[in-house]
Write a structure and sequence with these properties.
With 315 residues, the protein is α/β, with parallel strands linked by helices. It has nine helices and ten strands. The strands form two sheets. Strands 3-1-4-9-8-5-6-7 form an eight-stranded parallel sheet, sandwiched between helices. It has a two-stranded antiparallel sheet with strand order 2-10. Helix 5 links the parallel strand 5 and strand 6.
């Protein structure tokens, strides 16, 4: 549709050139008139194992040059009906996690004065807590679809209460979430005790361990979540380590026995109709991703999120 931003075509300008924006969309500073604002949060000072996610936004954008505007599987043509642009990276304080979380929170307060839905490229998962604080100010307590190997409900890590492993305990304590509308998909791995996930389940969080999903078409699960959500304002946070390391090795806290990239597509596509008000893709760590496949997968997941937004045109 005329007047809508379109990714630069690989037939007009070679994919290895052009701007390093998401899908080579326009870079803008003014959010007025946007339906979706893609932004980077290049931070890894909230991690507890392997660093490198500060390079995630740059690499995800780079790999996203491979993507084309039309979803041949679903018929979605998001750029025909939505005005999407890349608003750049937040200027976090790379020497201070506390200050960086403040910067993210204040930045989202500003972003959310516009009508654009924010879609963030991380960065480690600690970015999601200040994002949820801003989103809850705008929309009230949120439903949450959290795809991850880890529940991220620790109380403290090395005495710190705000890290990538404590996000959803803090969000629950602060009343940012509707507990029985929280869906944690892909949980797995070893733990510190048999009760690592049990407390959050007691809050009302609905948990779907990866071992129960092996070999399953996740469209069924996505359909169940969609029906359960109704019109709740919903935030979708996708940790790339939800995928098995065979599909996404470039991440900070890998766990074997995860989801497949095909299951990721099934799940997201089946969420069409959910009232998504924001989303993020986190924990892509390029130093552990020499082929670029993890970042490419992350870029595709972000694109699939765009394809299920309300108002997307279909061909």
């Amino acid at each position: 549709m005329s007047g809508k931003n379109q990714p630069i075509s690989g037939n007009d300008l070679a994919r290895f050139s052009g701007p390093n924006t998401f899908m080579r969309l326009p870079a803008v500073n003014d959010l007025k008139g946007l339906d979706v604002a893609v932004l980077g949060i290049p931070m890894d000072i909230g991690t507890s194992w392997r660093s490198g996610t500060r390079m995630g936004p740059k690499q995800v954008r780079s790999e996203s040059a491979m993507l084309r505007p039309y979803n041949l599987a679903t018929g979605a043509a998001p750029f025909d009906s939505l005005q999407v642009a890349d608003i750049g990276d937040l200027a976090i304080n790379t020497f201070s996690l506390k200050d960086s979380l403040r910067i993210i929170s204040e930045s989202y307060d500003s972003i959310l004065t516009y009508d654009a839905m924010p879609l963030a490229i991380g960065g480690d998962h600690s970015i999601t807590l200040p994002i949820l604080r801003g989103m809850a100010k705008r929309h009230g307590p949120l439903a949450l679809i959290h795809v991850d190997a880890h529940a991220d409900v620790n109380d403290e890590m090395f005495g710190e209460r705000e890290t990538h492993g404590t996000v959803f305990r803090r969000a629950h304590e602060e009343g940012l979430l509707v507990p029985d509308k929280v869906y944690q998909v892909g949980l797995r791995g070893t733990g510190y005790s048999a009760d690592d996930f049990a407390e959050a389940a007691g809050w009302g969080f609905q948990q779907f361990p990866a071992a129960e999903l092996w070999g399953r078409d996740l469209s069924t699960l996505g359909n169940e979540i969609r029906r359960d959500l109704g019109d709740y304002p919903t935030y979708l946070t996708y940790d790339i380590d939800s995928l098995d390391p065979a599909f996404a090795p470039g991440t900070g806290t890998p766990e074997i026995g995860g989801l497949t990239s095909m299951q990721a597509l099934q799940l997201i596509r089946s969420l069409k109709g959910v009232n998504l008000v924001g989303g993020d893709l986190v924990e892509v760590s390029p130093p552990y991703d020499p082929s670029g496949n993890t970042a490419l997968t992350g870029a595709n997941i972000l694109y699939e999120m765009l394809c299920i937004l309300p108002g997307v045109a279909y061909r």
